[in-house]
Amino acid sequence: MIFDTRPKVQVHIAQTNESFPCAGDESLLKGMLRLGRKGIPVGCVNGGCGVCKVKILEGSTTTLGPVSRAHVSAEEEAQGYTLACRVAPTCAVKLEVAGKFEKPFSRGFVQTNQIAT
């Protein structure tokens, strides 16, 4: 059995309140997938589709590859948006899912104000 001894930091997904350990040399997305988690939407896993778009709320990351401007503009990047498949954590990170799949995570619980008669 091979044990992964790389130092890891915690990555927290705000909408699902889920956390997972991620090594500093692996992408946020690969760290999640390695553990079989499903908090961040998964697409092509190489920066081309934009499905894994997230906003870094706390902490910091380092770039592992180019981030497509078709999915993350320079202005968005300055506001903390990135693709989870293209960045690795440099310290503990708190993020929220953004982009195409933000709505299912943000919707929350449906409230009904109707009274049954």
Explain this structure.
By secondary structure, the protein is α+β, with helices and mostly antiparallel strands. The protein has a single domain, classed as Ubiquitin-like (UB roll) (Roll), CATH 3.10.20. Helices cover 15% and strands 27% of the residues. It is built from 3 helices and 7 strands, in the order ββαββαβββα. The strands form 2 sheets. A 5-stranded mixed β-sheet has the order 2-1-7-3-5. Strands 4-6 form a two-stranded antiparallel sheet. Strand 1 and strand 2 form a beta hairpin. The protein is globular. The protein starts with 7 loop residues before the first strand and ends in an 11-residue tail after the last helix. The relative contact order is 0.23. The C terminus is likely disordered.
Architecture blueprint of SSEs:
Blueprint: E1 8-13, E2 18-23, H1 28-34, E3 53-58, E4 61-63, H2 74-78, E5 81-83, E6 87-89, E7 93-97, H3 102-106
Parallel strand pairs: 1-7
Antiparallel strand pairs: 1-2, 3-5, 3-7, 4-6
